[in-house]
Amino acid sequence: MTLGPVAFLAPFLLLALVVLPILWLVLRAVPPAPVRRRFPGVALLLGLQDEEAAADRTPWWLLLLRTLALGAVIVGLAGPVLNPREGAGGTGPLLIVADASWGSAPDWAARQARVEAALEEAARDGRPVSVAALTAPPVEARFSPAEGALAALPGLEPAPFAPDYAAFAIPEGTAGTLWISDGLDHPGRAELLARLEAFGPVEVAEAAGIPPSLGPPRPEGGEVALEVHRPSGGPAQVARVIARGPDPAGAVRVLAQGEAAFEAGATRAEALLEMPSELLARVQRFEVGGVRSAGAVQLADDGLRRREIAVLGPGADEALVLLSPSHYLREALAPVADLIEGDLGAVIPANPDAIVLADAGRVPEAAALEAWVRGGGTLIRFAGPRMAASEVGVGEDDPLLPVRLRAGGRTVGGAMSWGEPKALRPFDPEGPFAGLDVPEEVRVSAQVVAEPGPDLAERTIAALEDGTPLVTAAPLGEGRVVLFHVTANAEWSGLPLSGLFVRMLDRLALGAGGGREGAGGLEGTVLVPEVLLDAYGAARDAGERAGVAGEAVAEALASGPGAALPPGLYAGEDRAVAVNVIGTEAAEAGPAAFEWPRAPGPLVVDEEMPLGGWLLVAALALLALDALLSMWLAGRLRLRRGAVAAALLPLALALAPGGADAQDAAPGGGPATATPGEEAPFDAEDIQAASDVTLAYVVTGDPAVDEISEAGLLGLSRTLAARTSVEPRRPAGVVPGEDELGFYPLLYWPVTADQPTPGATATEALNRYLRGGGMIVFDTRDAGFRGGGTTAEGRALQRIAAGLDVPPLERLPEDHVLGRAFYLLQDYPGRFNGRDVWVEAAPPGAERIEGMPFRNLNDNVTPVLIGGNDWAAAWAVTDAGRPMLQVGRGPAGERQREIALRFGVNLVMHVLSGNYKSDQVHVPALLDRLGN
Amino acid sequence: MAAPVTLRPRADALAAPLPPLLARAERLASTVAHGAHGRRRPGAGDEFWQFRHAMPGDPARSIDWRRSARSDATFVREMEWETSQAVTIWVDRSASMDFAEGGRAPKADRAALLGLACAILLIRGGERVALAPGEGRGPPPAAGRARLDRIAADLAGPGAGGDRGGDHGGDYEGDYGRAPQTPPPPNTRALWLSDFLGPVEPALAAMRRAADAGVRGVLCQVLDPAEEALPYEGRTVFESMGGRLRHETRKADALRGEYRGRLAERRAALRDACRRTGWVWTRHATDGSAAAALGGLYHALEGGGR
To answer: Where would I find the DUF58 domain in this sequence (chain B) (predicted)?
Structure first.
């Protein structure tokens, strides 16, 4: 029987509720028992009569209380269950298939939980199950007991491509199917549904929304346009698109951000990222902020790479180098392109994206150059005295010039001419220079002049005030030819001195080589994967994977990646190709939501919760209250009002656990935050922390983890006090963003899988802390469980550290000062002894000097230390000073604990004394100098 | 050989309540100003009264030579005439006096304290004091510290000097104290401390008998405030302290008015009888100040003697 979300296991017991009114009547008739009271004045009372003849009745509210208590008992015994799970029904083998695709990755944990729930239910019902990820269909699916499948469930991982429905063979004997769907309309879904339904009922579970995905980047001038898709539509919403790449120092950072604003109901929106080509060349990936899915990532490849541009100018004397036209060109192009030098015969075979010819008359190897342009090259020419003198293109169509030229050229504003030097006309909004500002000071005093012709207007892409063409362009085969009618130096015009010149070249250079992206030219080549994406959108080194044929890559570029060719960056001989989840074809169509014939079930199923126990507890509480009230009513309980409140308070607290928890929610042990408006921003806790060395840990919100952290730092503090002159106070727990971090030399940060990502304030506080010389020890505590893949803690760490200014890292080198800051150490164990401990990378120039045991390394304290050895657990002691947790086994374990403590001592010493030990490499030199 | 072993604890137990009660009573007595008791005329006594010229007929022994040496005349030192009175004190120590409510001391405690303090004051004033038993004739009044110790021991000891619930013939009187049936020696004073909640007629009769014998005295009704207010509510069975009387009510608070009326009647009867016999009527509630009550009692005893 079901009442709303509550079902009853023994509904017939509810019939007993009928007796409640009878109980009411009975209880009503029985007055409360009298109090016996010794009282000498009774002698005076003898013979007095009570005024009221009626029986003294139990007050109605007491009756109500008792009735409620009994009602609660009856209902509680009837076995109410909140959110009863509707049995999927059916018996026989259950098939569970999951679209373990990139669309499932963001909420994969929920999907796994759903599968787990289904498996547990199947285990209860004794149904054999078969679990299959449709992205990696098992060769031969077979049914096995659900218990075994439960154990294997953590191995079910999403893959960064679409499911392969056609390849899935439905095992024999399937009696029912649970389909964990990602909601996307992958090809073949309808057919598989039909095939599954032939075997038995199909239950579909689907998340409420489909995560957004990102289309390929399209560079447009100084901007990059990216389309964001959200197949499930929804209200107006803004998605953040982020471009990441290395900064000049090599650390991967956010290079640019843009916003894609969805209108209500729209499934597509475009984000424009303002990116000069110099930035664009460094982009490694674009991603939709906050979406952990391979579909929301676009790896950048050669489509965005730096162009190669050959600059050929007239040979110039060494002394006149600053006047050489090619000098201006080099200066302008160097930031945006790779320059190639040499003569034309050597440059053309190198196949640059563009060739710039400054003031060339007759081109010596015109045929080769023309063939190159026709093959897709961009030729940019500048006029000059030589060109004018050679009369090239005068009266004839030279294929290497976009327009015919008049003989002679033109000089304005000179000593021998009338008129003023001309300024530029604003650019055509349709042309390649659209949107560039024309500076006032640019004046053109001489130029070569185009012969008017029918197509001159459309070939003019920049002109002077009077309409004289300044820059003309014409297509030639697949390429094009551009002519600046002025010199590339400041002889004829002020253009090369202005910033406009750089931007115009930038535009032209970006446009160059545009036709060479994509699948063309891949046939017959072999590409080696360099970086691969996982389903969560994290890039991973491809390692030693075998190369793939260019044809396969070309196909994947069009139709999307698959199991054989996962998304990633594939390097060929002369180019790198990024295979992204959303390929060009998919981007045009846009990922679509699949329309199920019947509405799919929700992914998150409310936990079944028996209420019987709670009701019985409530009945007991009511009866206890009844006892109290009866005593009070009978006069046995003579309490003042305050005392009654005090007696009822624990009861009230017990009945409202939420209220009591709310107080505990405040970070335990953390210093109280200063209330706004207070004079002093620092409280006593802060002052204490500042006056003594205090180790601190980041409060994760998981009480067990926090307890270990505190106990661990306590143990380390005691060890420090016993062995060194560092005598720390009791460790403190801090919440970044709420507590002032500056007082703590060291933050120990245990990473839990479900830790929230720090907000903007917290990130800023942490970055300030790192910049101010603080050190954060990230401990993922998973060194013992890591089996090749990234653990949930590892992913959480990536998530947390994404906003932090973390420098490039390297594995803790043998000669790092951490190994000799106090103790000499080779290992850095905690409860686990993993080798993966990461610190700030040494500067690239550091090399070991012959005869020195250590390199002369950086002067800095590493701002972060990342590892998974669960150090706090090894350090943890109880208040009485005994170790809290077992480390290893026997004496070897105790030895490991000792080494762990020594590592902790070294760590604190390193933080507090910095490069002191590192500087010891200078000791021989100092002694030497003292000796002399 | 067991005697010395058990004797000591028993002696300790016996003596234990004595010093505190006596000390408290002494402290209480010290709050009363002395000096109102002298006879204000020359006579036999210990206190100096005046010097006067020696008259013929004065015995030479009475001449105060020290005074006389300072002048030509001879002087006789006259002492103040001090007569000692006999006071019998009755402290009701029946079960009903054990009643206490709300953390206050039992009535018996307060009555004993007041009685003993009066005894101290009287003995200091040179009077003779005796503790009146409920039945029969007690020891004759006597003065001196020894008597005081005896009184203190009697008051502290269990039921030693008072009557404790003897059968009075009625169906409920056993729980209540009974005024001394044997009148005190003639022309003495009496101080009766009781709650007077028991049957009133025997008490009045005893008082009349005493008055007939020329005894005047003070009646002090010691009550717990709860007995004046009846602060109870709800369904209650009231029992006397010995459990011999019962009264059940469904609403104790409804009886409050009538109860107070009866208590006032009782007091009026006692006060009337006192007025007619020349006794003094006072009352005391245990939440009041013992010092004030003592002052009142002492002055009533004093005033009665004038």
So the answer is: 51-268
One-letter amino acid at A608 equals E
Percent with pLDDT over 70 in chain A:
83
Find, among A685, A674, A827, A699, the residue nearest to A758 by Cα. Answer: A699
According to DSSP, residue A514 is labeled G
Architecture category of domain A213-304 in CATH: Sandwich (2.60)
- The helix/strand/coil state of B58 is coil
**Is the Cα dihedral A426, A427, A428, A430 positive or negative?**
negative
Q: Which of B177, B167, B30, B205 is nearest to B90 (CA)?
A: B177
Half-sphere exposure (CA, 13 Å, Cβ side) for B235? 16
A462/A437 Cα distance (integer angstroms): 12
User: A192 near A165, Cβ under 8 Å?
Assistant: yes
Domain at A94-210+594-602: CATH architecture: 3-Layer(aba) Sandwich (3.40)
Total Cβ atoms within 10 A of residue A787: 6
Contact call for residues B66 and B76 (beta carbons, < 8 A): no
Residue B96 at interface with chain A, using a CB cutoff of 8 Å: yes
Q: Which range (A343-347, A361-365, B106-110) has the least confidence?
A: A361-365
Q: Which residue of A has its CA nearest to B263?
A: A44
- Size of chain A in residues: 932
Same fold, A94-210+594-602 and A213-304: no
DSSP 8-state class, residue B53: E
Residue B98 DSSP label: G
Are β-strands A568-571 and A539-541 bridged in parallel, bridged antiparallel, or unpaired?
unpaired
Q: Please, which residues have CB within 8 angstroms of residue A312's CB and are 6 or more apart in sequence?
A: A326, A342, A343, A344, A347, A355, A356, A357, A358, A360
Does A39 contact chain B (CB < 8 Å)?
yes
Instruction: Give the CATH class of A684-922.
Output: alpha beta
pLDDT at A660: 38
Q: Does domain A307-515 have CATH number 3.40.50.12780?
A: no
Residues of B in contact with A634 (CB under 8 A): 234-235
- The region of weakest confidence among A58-72, A361-375, B71-85 is B71-85
Backbone angles phi, psi at A662, to 5 degrees: -60, -30
Mutation choice for A interface testing from B171, B250, B253, B260 by most A CBs within 10 A: B250
Q: Are A37 and B240 an interchain contact pair (Cβ–Cβ within 8 Å)?
A: no
Contacts of A52 in chain B (CB under 8 A): 250-251, 254
Q: What are phi and psi of B63, to 5 degrees?
A: -70, 135
The per-residue pLDDT of chain A, averaged, comes to 79
Please give the residue of chain B at the shortest CA–CA distance from A36: B237
- Residue A643 — pLDDT band, cuts 50, 70, 90? low
Helix axes A641-655, A657-664, angle to 10 degrees: 80
Strands A446-447 and A378-382: unpaired
Q: What is the pLDDT of residues A724-760, one digit of tens each?
A: 888 888 888 888 888 888 888 889 999 888 888 888 8
In chain B, what are the domains?
Answer: 48-79 (no CATH), 86-304 (3.40.50.410)
Q: Do B239 and A42 touch (CB under 8 A)?
A: yes
CA distance A131 to A200: 16
Sign of CA dihedral A537, A541, A544, A549: positive
Residue A463, burial from CB neighbour count under 10 angstroms (0-12, 13-18, 19+): buried
Spatial neighbors of A445 by CB under 8 A, at least 6 apart, are: A411, A412, A413, A414, A421, A492, A493
3-class DSSP assignment, residue A828: coil
Instruction: Tell me which chain B residue has its CA closest to the CA of residue A41.
Output: B227
pTM comes to 0.44
For residue A905, what pLDDT band results from cuts at 50, 70 and 90?
very high
Count of CB atoms situated within 10 Å of the CB of A848:
11
